[in-house]
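Reader question, answered in our methods column.
A reader sent in the components of a multi-part assembly and asked whether the whole thing could be modeled at once rather than chain by chain. We filled in our standard form and ran it. Here is what they sent:
COMPLEX SIZE: two components
ENTRIES:
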Amino acid sequence: MSTTAELLKGAAELFPDEVVTSAHVRHLDLPSGAGRFALITLDNGFDHTKPTTFGPASLANLGLAIDQVEKEAAAGEIVGVGITGKPFVFAVGADLKGVELLKEYDHALAIGKGGHEVFKRLAGLAVPTFAYYNGAAMGGGVEVGLHCTYRTVSKALPAFSLPEVFLGLVPGWGGCTLLPNLIGADKAVSVIVENSLNQNKQLKGQQVFDLGIADALFEGADFLEQSLIWTANVLKGDVTVERPVVDRGEAWDQAVARGRFVADSKVHGAAPAAYRALDIIAAAKNGDLQQGYDAEDTALADLIMGGELRAGIYAFNLVQKRGKRPAGAPDKNLARPVTKVGVVGAGLMASQLALLFLRRLEVPVVLTDIDQERVDKGVGYVHAEIEKLLGKGRINQDKANRLKALVTGVLDKAEGFADADFVIEAVFEEIGVKQQVFAEVEAVAPAHAILATNTSSLSVSEMASKLQHPERVVGFHFFNPVAVLPLLEIVRGEQTDDASLATAFAVAKKLKKTAVLTKDAPAFVVNRILTRFMGEVQNVIDEGTPVEVAEKGVEPLGLPMSPLVLLELVGPAIGLHVSETLNRAFPDRFTVSPNLKAVVEAGKRGFYVYDSGKPELDPEVAALLKQGDTVLTEEQVRARVLDAVAQEIGLMLDEGVVAEAQDIDLCLITGAGWPFHLGGITPYLDREGVSERVNGKRFLAPGTASVPA
Amino acid sequence: MPRTVRDVVFVDGVRTPFGKAGPKGIYHETRADDLVVKAIRELLRRNPGLDPKKIDEVAIAATTQIGDQGLTIGRTAGILAGLPQSVPGYSIDRMCAGALTAVTTVAGSVAFGAYDIAIAGGVEHMGRHPMGEGVDPNPRFVSEKLVDESALFMGMTAENLHDRYPQITKLRADEYAVRSQEKAAKAYADGKIQADLVPISVRRTNADAGETGWGLVTADEPMRPGTTLENLSGLKTPFRVHGRVTAGNAAGLNDGATASLIASEDFARENNLPVKMRLVAYSFAGVEPEVMGYGPIPATEKALAQAGLSISDIGLFEINEAFAVQVLAFLDHYGIADDDERVNQYGGAIAFGHPLASSGVRLMTQLARQFEEQPHVRYGLTTMCVGFGMGATVIWENPHFEGDK
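And here is the structure of the entire assembly that came back:
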């Protein structure tokens, strides 16, 4: 038994639940008498809803297939070897479940080496090898093809990526080394680093060909046939594959530098994966493949044993799985159909909601407001947005006509809401106003209609308290910009019944939002944590720490933006308003900053001016600030802020605001854009020891979003 | 409005390799619509001068129009093949003569001036859709003795034909079958068949049927080169005890698809498309359903009469070999020898297979090749028998004919 086989056998024992991919070897006669050919099909035996992956036993299977074709190639029995996938799927890379189970460095190292040892044999056969990317190809799936002599790609291929950096890994089965050597460092940086950090952007077949990753592109209808005919022509010499010469000069270094700039702007040095990938790409300039593979092995093992990757996989699973099956949602069969939606208010937020409901539900949506001018403006906004979609070709004229005809505006709620199944309000954030609006709606809407509120900080139960049927009121809290951020906090009031809640979740699903169930607690989840977080930053500034030190203190987290830039995006006045609300609820922990108040009163939209192109403290704001004389270091700031966040989350879980810490993390990822390498935040608080320090315990059990003990 | 009938030509034809129906057949895990879609795509690839927008119709035949052969397969196959949405399509059925009828039907429309060019073809996946799937014959057929009970079973109708022509013995049928296999093997060896085949990728997940994974089909699966009289003599006669029809002297149960381009001659010439055959006449005839194999004879009579030709004018014959006896009945009728070299030069369905509604275009594609090679021949015909007692014949003229020069 070879070393590789032993390595993989050991790894397979650690991962008994692997969905094993077979590597079928089938022989065929190439067209035009080009000779006998061996085609390997990667197939896990399931349909396309369970894509083919590579775990240790799968790699071993591929190794056996290569053993067979290697002998045949050496004996001159075949003229070439191809590799392709089951229908719609080529292969989507390493099985992440197996990665989660790894607890020892040597085992992590074995995963990298095992993949390399198997894949690189494809390059060492006595005959040319061909990869036919017939369908979804990701990670190790892409990489197995990179080891082949030639590649074809289907025009129908919907998703092709090296998503490792997105999760916290590097393309470590040859990707970091082979891709730049194939298509040049700049394009490789785009695929490996930029696309990954750009919300895991996927390439389509045409782009895979345009980038030079594939040598030929064929339509989906007869992709494999045309690939094999092309193969025959290549082998007979009728087709010559010419690839542009890779620039190994300064362009290579510039590409890597560009990659570092991209990484800095996305993760601010806080997550190692992109930088490790770039180091390997930089070194690949000399074309020494084995040296690159060795570097990939080390990087993979280091990252697999690190918290960032574990947090990344945890975050990925939250978004992909928990985000689609919300914890605590009632039986979906209780949901009532929603065939017409009412929107109270026709302001910007209300109009955005109207557009969203219209596009996703495709049912009549009626806006109301206090005067015709506002109503017309709201409907006008929706029409204009539909026109924009039409102009961009996102919808056709028929669909535009349909959507426009579905949106109307009326002054009379009775006329608008008499047959509505779901009415959402987005009026001024003032409890009395909201109560009055709901009372008016209840008087005219059908008895079964859901009354939803987009409040960000008021009590849903209180809003419902004066109604005859408070059981049908739910909180439906979107995040701005509504079209971009996936999160929807669904708030259960004290009297909300299961049918109403089930309907709310059903609507959320149709809206394609990530719904999280929260208790009717002040500011729910995201705003409460963000306010506590920013409040603590504001506190240290108020106490005397310079603004730039306070901001730098939290930079190592790699958040999408600094606390004060975020405040500017939210609007200082709204930030102040939320802090006041939370201060009333929890005066011991949430302060109202006098400096923030002063900034708001001065009519400032933020702390910074951007005259130099970079954010600099606005001198007028600086003049307003009244600071104490306690100056903290960056480390001290970070500790203060993280302690506050850990404390707040601990209290929220004790209060039962959400079911589990996982829901907090899901909210922060999808509602605030907090990064995968933090796993939202609780994995980071656990691994940095903050949870233990503040609450005396971890949020998550060891092994969840961390290396198992 | 006065109209002028236009000359209609066979521009080009292709087919998939034919497979054996059943769990071990090459196409067992391949959809029927995919087969015909790939044939259509190959047809277009071979004729890059044809702007697909100009195609006026897609007529696709299938006998069992259920599942992947249903849903108006002429329309769905057009969309799946990537034809512009503006190109319409329909389904057609005359059992074994489906593709042949697709050709004559669109040809009629071309002659009339309704179409300039159309795709006509057929598909039958007898593994996915066994003969008789979902049929519901009216009980009056039996109660009123409208047809003999054997009429629904093609093998029995072949036995009935042997009864009608006692001189057509099992030995003659077997000898004919051996020659069909020999001629087909020679045609393959001479490269006459491969050029009109579309390679088809096929998946296999059942290891009992052979190597698993994706493969590529580039040749007909049913062929049995080297078949001898001895091999055939011992075969069972499944349709009748001590009968004469065996699996060896009949076409099998098969999967496959064909597609052809039919155009007005003017359109073909203006668009620089090949003109492989010129349509002379076509005819269909009904006979007693229980001897359906007799059908080609009256159909051919009608077609010859229409064209003002006699059988001696026909220089090449492509007769579908559903059963050897049915070919021999035709040859006997016209006094043509069993081994006449004008008949089925490349062998026939006994060797290649007969996926019912697809076969008509195979006959034409082969006749077109023979025309090209034999410019001394002016006329040829394609003919086939059809279930429920019918025959179908198309007479073609060789555009390469040099006899006048």
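What stands out: Chain B has a mean pLDDT of 97. The two ends of chain B are 38 Å apart (CA to CA).
Send us your own complexes using the same form.
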